[in-house]
Amino acid sequence: MAIVRLTKRFGFEMAHALHGYDGLCAHLHGHSYYLTTTVIGEVLQNPTSPKNGMVMDFGDLKKIVYEEIVDRCDHALMLNKSQQEEIVIEKEQSKLFQRVIFVDYQPTSENMLIDFASRIKRRLPQHIKLHHLILHETNNSSAEWWEDDN
C-alpha cells in the first residue's frame, strides 16, 4: 500500500469587495487567483483497471475543480449578500453584471477557501481525501486550508 498526494494548480480572474472593511479592499477590485489543490489517497494496484497505478486521474480532479470553482468564479464578481441592495442594475448595464455571485460570507481568501474545500470534498470519490488548498490572491499573498487543521 502506498499513499501519494496529487497536486494540480488552477487559475481564474475574479473581482470582489469586502463589505465594511476599513481599507482599500472595501472598493471593487480584482485578482488573478491561483488555487493549488492537493488530494491524497492510495495508489491503485489493479492491472485490470484503466486507472491502475493512479491515486486519481488528474482529468477527474480538473473536472471537479472546474465545475465547482473555476467555471463559477472566473470573470465573476463576488460580493457578500449584505451588499445585494447596493448593486442597482439598470437594464442597459445588465450584461455587465451577469456574473455576480452573492455569498453568505465576507469574500476573503480565507472564507473562499472554506467554501471551496466544502465544494470539492463532496465531489471527490470516497477513497480520495482533500489534503489541502492554497489560494494565491496575489503573487506574494496566499491563504491555506489543511484538512488536518479542521
Please give a structural write-up:
The mean pLDDT is 94. The longest helix is centred in the middle third of the chain and has 16 residues, at 58-73. The protein has a six-stranded mixed sheet with strand order 4-3-1-2-5-6. It has helices at 58-73, 109-121, and strands spanning 3-16, 29-42, 76-80, 100-103, 129-138, 141-146. The protein has a single domain (3-149), classed as Tetrahydropterin Synthase, Chain A (2-Layer Sandwich). With 150 residues, the protein is an alpha/beta fold.
Describe the structure concisely for a colleague.
The protein has 150 residues and is an alpha/beta fold.
Helix share bin: 10-25%
Q: On the 0-100 scale, what is the average pLDDT? A: 94
Could you give the order of strands across the largest sheet? 4-3-1-2-5-6
What order do the SSEs take from the amino end to the carboxyl end, as H and E?
Answer: EEHEEHEE
The total count of helices amounts to 2
CATH class: Alpha Beta
Whole-angstrom Rg: 18 Å
How many structural domains? Answer: 1
What brief labels describe this structure?
six-stranded mixed sheet, 19% helix, 150 residues, Tetrahydropterin Synthase, Chain A, single chain
Helices, strands, pairings?
Layout: E1 3-16, E2 29-42, H1 58-73, E3 76-80, E4 100-103, H2 109-121, E5 129-138, E6 141-146
